[in-house]
Write a structure and sequence with these properties.
The chain has helices at about 35-55, 65-70, 75-89; strands at about 15-20, 25-30. By secondary structure, it is α+β, with helices and mostly antiparallel strands. The protein has 2 domains: about 10-60, no CATH class; about 60-89. The chain has a two-stranded antiparallel ribbon.
């Protein structure tokens, strides 16, 4: 009897752990490419860590996709105004 290992592809699993704050960020990719690591790090810097710093100094962050800004500017402005109205109360 012969047994052969069939490779069905590889993937990345990225993990960022911040034990003192109890924070973990995990991301799995469908394939294995070096660029996936760059995207993971970019998302960390653009997401929780940049926002955490700004929130810590009293600023708020609202994020909108490029598609929303280019295709739904009225909706974006409405959301910003609603946020400012709620925050002012």
């Amino acid at each position: 009897m012969d047994d052969e290992y069939k490779r069905c592809g590889t993937a990345n699993i990225f993990l960022c752990v911040e034990p003192l704050k109890g924070r973990t960020v995990v991301e799995a990719t469908e394939h294995r490419a070096k660029v996936d690591f760059a995207y993971f790090i970019r998302d960390l810097c653009d997401g929780p860590y940049r926002d955490a710093y700004l929130n810590g100094i009293g600023l708020s962050v609202l994020r909108f996709s490029n598609l929303d800004v280019l295709g739904n500017m009225d909706g974006v402005i409405t959301e910003i105004v609603q946020y400012l109205d709620v925050d002012a109360q």
